[in-house]
Amino acid sequence: MPRRMRTMNEHSTIEAAGPRVPPPEKLFEKRKFVHPKRIDGPFRRFKWLVMLVTLAIYYGTPWIRWDRGPYAPDQAVLVDLANRRFYMFGIEIWPHEFYFVAGLLIMAGIGLFLVTSAVGRAWCGYTCPQTVWTDLFQHVDRFVDGDRNARIRLDAAPWGPKKIAKRAFKWTIYLIIGFWTGGAWIMYFADAPTLTHDFWTGQAAPVAYGTVAVLTFTTVLLGGFAREQVCIYMCPWPRIQAAMMDEKTLTVTYKDWRGEPRGSLKKAKKKPDAFGDCIDCNQCVSVCPTGIDIREGPQIGCITCALCIDACDRVMAEVGRPRGLIDYATLEDCEHEKAGGEPRPVWKTILHPRTVIYFLVWGGIGLGLLFALGTRNHTDLTIAQDRNPPFMLMRDGSVRNSYTLKLRNMESRPREMEISIEGLPGAVMWSEEMSHHSAARSITRAVPADAIETMRAYVVAPRHTQGQDFTFILRSLDEQGETDSGEARFDAPEGQGRHEAR
Amino acid sequence: MANKRVDEATGTQTVGHEWDGIEELDTPMPRWWVWTFYATIVFAIGYCIAYPAWPMISQGTEGVLGWTSRGALADELEAQEARRAEAVSGLAAMPLEQVQGDEQLMSAALAGGRAAFKVNCVQCHGSGAAGSKGYPNLNDDEWLWGGDLTAIQTTLLDGIRQPGNDDTRFSIMPSFGRDGILTGEQVSQVVDHVMSLSGLGPANPAGAQLFENNCAICHGPDGKGMREFGAPDLTDAIWLYGSSRDEITYTVHNARNGVMPAWGERLDPVTIKMLAIYVHSLGGGEDFTQEVAPEADDAPANEDDERT
Question: Is domain B84-167+260-306 classified as CATH 1.10.760.10?
């Protein structure tokens, strides 16, 4: 079956495919602005709730405090780019642990698969930022210009003082929302109260002002003006989701077997048996935030926000017909009901093998990440041997190798750490800031809180030592006594001891 | 050939191509899309006017903003210079011996010294300062002219056997064989003795006697060397020119008089200071209190600063 991509603005009225096809009417199409009508209903109220929660999370999260002691920031969620740390409540991620973030992203990806396979494009309909902000801006439209008909009239009206005033007012609100959105974004990257103060006193970094400016612009552009064009022309996600949906996926569906043929109430009264339940009132179209007609079937422009269900249910109640002419249903269920079967409960449509498998994978990764987070070591040792030169012959014939050691203290408090040599008989070491007279098998270093201490270790082994592997052991000198170790290579001249010159 | 038809379900014409039954609808593009496209063209024109863009015969168009990558580099270098200014002036003011006490200046000196070393010193001493035959390894604990900070700085400033520099480190080993001071057999005996000093061969009493008469004045009676003459310790495991019999014989016969440029004539005092600190940090640097060789190291640091 050829895959069809439908768009909602079809003007071409060519009926049949003849041998001679007239050229397309036009190559480009003028934007038809969508003016969705206000509607109330269970799905609309759910959308309000989701919008409230998501916006509250977005604007509020940076202001949550989280005590981590004197050596770490007290912001609950903070992406500290300057110091390369990512804080999320009780979790602190270092750059070398970025796989945790990668794991979270994989979970987010599989989570989207899971949601898509269970409830279709719920992400598009409720939680996608584009949807949430578009919804917000559409409420601003409604607040300033009135509902659908008033807005259509105002759009068509010539520019006059009243229209200019209304537009100026509306766009000012757009700008404020955009500015606030951009302003909230930067709070995730620095201490929010400090940054707010610096921002308003002109002391913040230029990149902060730049980011706010760019995000204000994009928020106003995408939420205030581009709106459904983003979903239909720019976003890859509808295409991906279209590929992931199947006949078992819950989606917003017009039950054409029940609604067709359409006929107004008047016509239906004349010929009661000739028409379906759809009275062709067009309410589903006028409430649609992307301006589509759901009765044309599932299509890429439909974000499954379910506002048309609210609209249709209300009309059906008014005309005394059962609700659900437009409803969440799987295509399979639609066929089932069409054939006269009983509607299946929603949990049955959600729970099928694909969703279960996605959920198990998603949960498995989540548990794995939690386990890794809970058992990770807060002490870490990295060893790099100096390769140029690999070894050094000393006056007394002993051999010296140099290593750059990085002692990581991932606790937010300073710790004493001891680094020692295991193996390599007779070898002692010292580091650059101590005298080589005090060389020993182990060195103690104070490692600052939440930091990496880089030290150079000079390891000297007695004359005749052959090249061999040995181990550096790092141990924290506190009640935790965490250890980490690393293999290192000790290089020595070949045939050492026979006094061959290098 | 393109087989255009109108799709029944949508009423839209297809573009006329088909891939395994998949056809593409010729849906009109949104008008804003084409305006965006025009905007990028306008931007490109503006960019070509503002920035260097078009290749001409001898050179490209310059662009009205006057931007060049060379100029951008110069700006960045200037900015870098400005960032370094504090460390540079701090290092200039601080006596060499005290730099180690200042953590910030110390790390600045090490970084600067490492960079200057890569530019000026690696040609002879190697990028890891491991040296090669005739060019000392700077990582080890053997120093011909002294290995504390001021001794290293003096070596850097005035060089070794630098012609025309009165303060340069200077000594001459005679060419014992070539100049006929010792006969071939005597040279061989001395070589025997020298090798025996570090256990490379059996003792040779005749050689020992010759050594005492000819060599001990610089290398010391027991061959431990003397830093005021840059005379190496012959008893240790480190051999600048190799420890084989042939190499040592060559050294006694022809003499070795290595040279190093006086970097004080080419580099500024702060760079010299940073280089001294860097070389000292390589692992073999000596403390001031340890083996001080006052004859060689009496040039105070601030005096060096005035010399350019």
Answer: yes
